[in-house]
Amino acid sequence: MCKKILLLTTVCLAVVGCNDNNEEKPLEPAPSIVEIKIECENDLIIKGLSTVCESNAVYIDGSSVNVTNDTEWSSEKDSIIDISSLSDKNQIKLAGLSNGSDALNAKYGSLTTSKSLSVEPATLYSLYIEAEGGYIEPVQLKAYESFKLKAMVDTSIGEYNVSHLAAWDYNEAEPKFGEGSTKINEGIVTARALPLNSSVSTTVTASLEYEEEIFESDFYFDVLGWIEMCNHAVNDTVKGSNQGECLKVASSPSNTDQLLTSPPSIAVMDALGYIEAPLSAGRKTYRATLTEENIIYAAVQQKENGGIEHDWLQYQGWCQELADAKFAGVSSWTTITDWQSHSIIASQFAWPVLSDYWSESMPAGIGGSVYNIMDFQSGNIEQEYYDKALLASCTASVSELEKVGLEYLPYPKKI
Q: What is the pTM (predicted TM-score) of this model?
């Protein structure tokens, strides 16, 4: 019997499959993949140091996907570079063994490519840290927000990226909050949650030992507090945890890539400067309050279809506030188009259920400013006019939450 296995070579892990005759053969790439590309942090490797590379399969539409762990790697020579797998990072590491030129070969299914590399000796002068994306010191981060730092060395043969080799650490000034406001992993800096209106200054240090000499550099930034996720967790089930300055966040039971926020409490709205007022009052308003299980929630209006254009739209404005602030590190918070079958969220994660929730969709054939709403008590989709005061939930993508810092924090996490 033939089955898929991991084929160990001296340089990589290569995935193999089976043909109709039960003979092992490499897995073929999808038909829409037109080429593979090798990308390395450094094309020139300093002797005694290393660089990291990856292979990406390029689709016919120009998009790409990392296939490093499914690629067969080799080099033309054995004495110039040493190849080792970093499978947990979807990368390979190339160590410079001796001076000279070599070719790195990659084979993914029937597609092949190669990249010329060279190893040279160099003198290291200094190490410095630079931020990707144009950040300038001191950077200001909000809770759960991330950015990437690169550790670079200035050498006799030019600049060299040593982010994967550097030892990263950080030091926070007083006051400290719990386990600290920052998490750093190979240059990825993620701010943990801090209480609203608090801040802490942080210094990130990168260091590298080379030929018995230590090179170091610092980078400075401030972490700013904002509204936190209740219990710092996605899918928090603790009843009453949202009565303070926090929002519950749940993952949708019917869409694994969808996040949903609980409606804001008055504690949250007061902390952010919102007032109870009609739409005509302007920015940062909610329409009324609703009380359940001794927690007071803010209720908002929808927008009038074809009516007066207000400077502040309560439902849309609230979700935009979360997006602008990158709540939970996510910048794509928006109103909910279709509730689908989300009524399980209310009971399972202790959300308010006695009042209905707005959506952005309108029922067909009714006309006017009528919207579909979610009745959590019955689990049904019903309809309501725009000027009713109902609860507001916002939605975003789970994948964005993971991209900006989920894997670098002990929270947010699913519990």
A: 0.65
